[in-house]
Design a protein that fits this description.
By secondary structure, this protein is an alpha+beta fold. The protein has 2 domains: 79 residues, hypothetical protein PF0899 fold (2-Layer Sandwich); 46 residues, no CATH class. Helices cover 31% and strands 29% of the residues. It is built from 4 helices and 6 strands. The strands form 2 sheets. A 3-stranded mixed sheet has the order 2-1-6. A 3-stranded antiparallel sheet has the order 4-3-5, with no helix packed on it. A hairpin with a 5-residue loop joins β3 and β4. The longest helix is centred in the N-terminal third of the chain and has 18 residues. It starts with a helix and ends with a strand.
Length: 133
Amino acid sequence: MHELSIACEILEQVMATATEHGATEVKHVTLQIGRLSHTNPEQLSFCFKAIAEDSIAKDADFIVEMIPPSLECECGYTGPIDEKQIQENCGFTSELLAYAAVMDCPICGKHARIKGGRELIIKSIEIETENQD
């Protein structure tokens, strides 16, 4: 389960940022995870909460936003994959294969390449600091 090592890295970054800004509590951590990153958001959340138990991030909301992959074509097109086509191909054994099946450019019809969808980004960290009047 690589989610544990990812959660450790996320917590390390969260704590470094919180310390740098004098935080007394981490309220929210928002991640963006690409659909093709092979990262299970529920497992990642569970691991994060388990390892954050003895930290100022113990009660933080762990919010995950899933990012769909997009296409890039030699004709210059860059844009989303048609989600309707993905739904039609949901009989594939994996989401990656379903995406691979719809890699034709909607503009010129040529084979396009998947761009993105593998991200794992800490989008935001909301902290609480002591009031200093």
